[in-house]
Amino acid sequence: RWRGPTGSRHDFEWPGRSVEVKATTSTRGRIHRINGLAQLAPPEQGGLLFFSLRLREEGGATNTLPSVIAVCRPELEADGDALSRFERALAQAGYSPAHEEEYAKLRLRVVEEGLFRVEEDFPRLTPASFPNGIPTGIERVEYEINLGGCGHLLVARCPPLPTIL
Questions:
Q1: pTM for this structure?
Q2: Beta strands in 5-158 (DSSP E)
């Protein structure tokens, strides 16, 4: 269901649901850059979820792009078509095995993962934010969102919130 490299509006799409994925290395919190007004608009049918991934660059971290891809490939081997689609998507995203050594130099630690429902009070701009149309002369809209106040929209989180007994 990974559609991002093919120019789809959302990173993952299937009938009735889409997921937009963003990663950040911001030390201020869950702050993500949004590219365009359509990126957080809901699909025509179903709902939209937003996956927030907070990362830190660390020399001793174990996550690299090649290591993540190496984890994915065996999961797809049973379905040759799925593996072929995955490899094509990697190529469309600009990934080249010839550069794996260079990619492996960036080592990231996962700080936090969160899955959010994108609902009316989710911070976003969409075409619907401009009922009279986008102002003349505006060519492109990029903006940042801060999910610090969106705990009520959180569906899942890792690490989980601490339990108070």
A1: 0.85
A2: 12-14, 17-24, 31-35, 47-57, 108-117, 142-146, 154-158
